[in-house]
Amino acid sequence: MVYDMISCGQFGQQLAELVNSSYRHIARCVYKESLVQEDLQGKNAIAGFYQFDKLDLSEIKWIHAFGAGVDDYLKQPTIQRDLILTRTLGYMDKRIGEYCLAYLLEDLKWVVSTHDNQRSHLWDRTNLNVLYNKKVLVLGTGFVGQGIASALGHLVEKIDGINGSGTSNPLFHQTMAMGNISQAHLEHYDIVISALPLTPSTRNFLNQAFFRLLHGAFFMNVGRGKSLVEDDLLWALENGHVRKAVLDVYQIEPLPSDSPLWDHSGVMMTPHHSGLTTFEDIRKSFEESVKAMKGGIRNQLFVNINQGY
């Protein structure tokens, strides 16, 4: 089958050029910056970042998403249950792993504080902390979680994972099921990193009940913003369950200017840039998706519509 594809938005023109130069046996592709319903006439495939709220996608057979998160696509009311939905991963696992390592080391080695002292001409030889004796828990052991484990695994005392079923993974010392989290002794972990996808079971999962299980942990969220109840994180910071938080994703983005997160001394915020998509990522994932389709294979780029990831 040769798809009639339309690509849109950022990187859409580059993908159209790639498809038409190298993948004419799979698809013919045209580019449009933004889509209206008339653009989909005669089309059965779309590639791009999400911009489809007002469109009828009932005739679309394949969507290639330009990001790793696909919850917006899955909420689109007109998609068919037999839709092929592929996503972009590329090298995001490595970039997000490096991001986590950078902000952990910033905290342990007082990088920003030391630079502030330099500007104040202050000689302060505060003892620096270390990473090698830390116990790390990663929530979500998929593509991003494995990238974090690869970046940190050889630098820490141990790194464990939590996923939906407790399925083991060689990058983690041990894995546990989310349903058993209350018995997982989370108080023993120095560092807790969320790389959870957004599903019905993970929405608002990082709430007060979860934070009560922690004891002075360093917390990071590089998964999905809607997994975190932000007011409950502030409660955890005030009550000693979380020592410091680094957030890259939020319930609402951009984060509203009146959010208390902006001014909290225990929170370091970044603007959802730990794993920004590049065209290199899109090219890699598109090519891997096409290869898998030709071979009748469903790899990690193919989204299970029912599971949501």
Task: Give the SSE map.
Elements lengths: L2 E6 L3 H11 L4 E6 L12 E4 L13 E4 L5 H5 L8 E3 L5 H18 L1 H9 L15 E5 L3 H10 L5 E6 L11 E3 L13 E4 L13 H4 L5 E5 L8 H9 L3 E6 L19 E3 L9 H16 L15
Parallel strand pairs: 1-2, 1-3, 3-4, 4-5, 6-7, 6-9, 7-8, 9-10, 10-11, 11-12
Helix pairs in contact: 3-5
What does this structure look like?
- By secondary structure, this protein is an alpha/beta fold.
- The protein has two domains: 3-90 and 278-294, NAD(P)-binding Rossmann-like Domain (Rossmann fold); 92-269, Rossmann fold, CATH 3.40.50.
- It is 27% helix and 18% strand.
- The protein has eight helices and twelve strands.
- It has helices at 12-22, 71-75, 92-109, 111-119, 143-152, 208-211, 230-238, 279-294; strands at residues 3-8, 27-32, 45-48, 62-65, 84-86, 135-139, 158-163, 175-177, 191-194, 217-221, 242-247, 267-269.
- The protein has a seven-stranded parallel beta sheet with strand order 8-7-6-9-10-11-12.
- Helix 1 links the parallel strand 1 and strand 2 (27-32).
- Helix 3 packs across helix 5 (143-152).
- The longest helix has 18 residues, at 92-109.
- The radius of gyration is 21 Å and the shape is elongated.
Notable traits:
single chain, alpha/beta, Rossmann fold, 2 domains, seven-stranded parallel β-sheet, five-stranded parallel β-sheet, 8 helices
H-E string? EHEEEHEHHEHEEEHEHEEH
Assign the CATH superfamily of the largest domain: NAD(P)-binding Rossmann-like Domain
CATH class of the largest domain: Alpha Beta
CATH T-level topology of the largest domain = Rossmann fold
Q: Pick out the low-confidence regions.
A: none
In terms of DSSP E residues, the strand content is 15-25%
SS-derived structural category: alpha/beta
Count of individual domains: 2
The name of the CATH architecture of the largest domain is 3-Layer(aba) Sandwich
Distance from N terminus to C terminus (CA atoms, Å) equals 25 Å
**In order across it, which strands form the biggest sheet?**
8-7-6-9-10-11-12
Could you say which overall geometry the principal axes of the C-alpha atoms support? elongated
Mean pLDDT: 97
Cα radius of gyration in angstroms: 21 Å
Helix content: 25-40%
Count of DSSP H/I helices: 8
Give me the count of strands. Answer: 12
How can the largest sheet be summarized? 7 strands, parallel
